[in-house]
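Shipment paperwork, digital attachment
Item: protein structure file
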Amino acid sequence: MLAINRRLKLVASFVKDRRLADIGSDHAYLPIYLAKKNKIDFAVAGEIVEGPHKVSIKNVKEESLSNIIECRKAAGLDAIELEDNIEVITICGMGGKLIAEILEKGKDKLLNKPNLILQPNVGENFVRRKLQELGYKIIEEEIIEEDGHIYEIIVACSGEMKLTEDEKNFGKFLLNKKSELFIKKQKLEQGKIKYILSQLEKANEIQSDKVEKLKLQYKKIEDIISQ
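Attachment content:
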């Protein structure tokens, strides 16, 4: 079996439905893993880039899973049709802004209300805002560190939610748990803000608006982690 990393294994643990679409499939590792574990009956592995798409086809064929996993070359949710009756969509390993754009552009493919499991590398707030806009509610959030990077996983289903600004930026469930890893991530974020502020102070022209905004961000994080 193809080895998958801890991040994808954690994503896989949230897949409870039998018909999957994995968008930006990264060589079809996730659907192959789930099929081998007999967790899914059907999957679409969607890729926009020719190279990874060809590798997905090769991997699926080598694992004798062509009868379960269809590799399709398409942008975002164009990889799926409503007739596929997809029950869960996974989008992992890209920026939150891009994930939000994929959901917005492909919202007509969400008419069947599939569950969503999303793992943005950065910009998680864009994902949460878009979910709220599209009539989805977050039902679980998890955080994991791998290879020196901290990732958030957001699980959502059809339903209404009204997030506060803090919940959009930090995650409702993550805020409640406030795990050591969550605190670590926020402290790393403070470190980045400190660095940017030090660079701005060296500039010939002080950008007071930007400095003020960053200081407010820093204080907000401080308030969050000290509560």
